[in-house]
Backbone:
């Protein structure tokens, strides 16, 4: 049987990139890059399990708990549970658990949220002020562009689903090691989307019978060590596996003018308002085509695709 594999591209790494160089040489390219040698503050050495437990104490946190390493947001193969932060951190650092919800080798994942998830964004300075003092966030954007700072903790072996965000962000790996696989926005036809997420859960051993086009997606890959910062441009799909227990911080900022974003979006993953309106209009157009016989529906749908390509595709992008 013919073996099919995706083309693989290594995400480039750059050392000691200043704000000026990032904005001049890196940011305009709109491609992921690993930034090394950044000044992040004492967090990279201080944030041990013991220190985290003491610094954040017994504050209750809502976490994802999964009996399997590959978490799937579409099928919801995990449960939400609440634990005191210090208990959660120690459990997340374990391989086998004496106390557990689902199984002795269950995986844990914390994605910090605002105090009122419907109104407030995640901000480490508000949710974990003691820990925030240890972090020096690379402010390679204007202060008014800042959207959120998301504190994350993952068990070793945990793999998150492939998805995209609508804002630019820095993934700051504070402790532990991660593998990150990314796909260009241009490869969206091959990723079998459901909303902002790909249906292809196992990207390392994909079912090409079920997802035959997935092989055409070009795979960008990197490994993040403690102290590394990955720039993920908006709309770049990413799949993250924690090879070790680790702590990370995502910093999101608004690449577009503020009025382009959905004001009710506290996660940074709702499509821009103009895109949402366009998709709604398209859905209504497709519903209208259902009034025609199949032969006519096919013909006019193809014409619509050609018109979209002619009017909206950008040839020099990506």
Residues:
């Amino acid at each position: 049987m013919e073996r099919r594999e995706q083309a693989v591209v290594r995400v480039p790494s750059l050392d000691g990139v200043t704000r000026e160089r990032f904005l001049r040489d890196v940011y305009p390219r709109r491609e992921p890059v690993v930034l090394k040698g950044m000044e992040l503050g004492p967090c990279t050495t201080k944030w041990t399990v013991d220190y985290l437990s003491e610094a954040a104490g017994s504050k209750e946190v809502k976490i994802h708990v999964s009996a399997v390493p590959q978490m799937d947001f579409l099928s919801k193969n995990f449960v939400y549970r609440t634990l005191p932060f210090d208990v959660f951190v120690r459990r997340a650092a374990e391989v086998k658990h004496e106390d557990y919800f689902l199984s002795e080798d269950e995986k844990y994942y914390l994605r910090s949220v605002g105090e009122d998830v419907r109104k407030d964004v995640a901000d480490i300075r508000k949710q974990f002020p003691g820990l925030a003092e240890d972090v020096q966030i690379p402010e390679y954007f204007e202060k008014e562009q800042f959207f959120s700072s998301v504190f994350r903790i993952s068990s070793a072996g945990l793999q998150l689903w492939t998805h995209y965000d609508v804002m630019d962000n820095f993934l700051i790996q504070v402790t532990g090691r991660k593998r990150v696989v990314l796909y260009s926005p241009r490869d969206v036809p091959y990723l079998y989307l459901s909303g902002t997420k790909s249906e292809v859960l196992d990207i390392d051993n994909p079912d090409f019978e079920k997802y035959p086009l997935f092989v055409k997606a070009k795979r960008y890959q990197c490994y993040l060590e403690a102290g590394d910062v990955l720039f993920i441009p908006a709309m770049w799909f990413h799949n993250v596996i924690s090879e070790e227990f680790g702590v990370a911080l995502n910093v999101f900022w608004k690449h577009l003018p503020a009025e382009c974003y959905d004001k009710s979006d506290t996660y940074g993953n709702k499509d821009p308002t103009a895109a949402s309106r366009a998709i709604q209009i398209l859905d209504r157009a497709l519903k209208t085509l259902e009034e025609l016989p199949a032969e006519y529906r096919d013909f006019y749908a193809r014409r619509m695709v050609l018109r979209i390509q002619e009017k909206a595709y950008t040839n020099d992008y990506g």
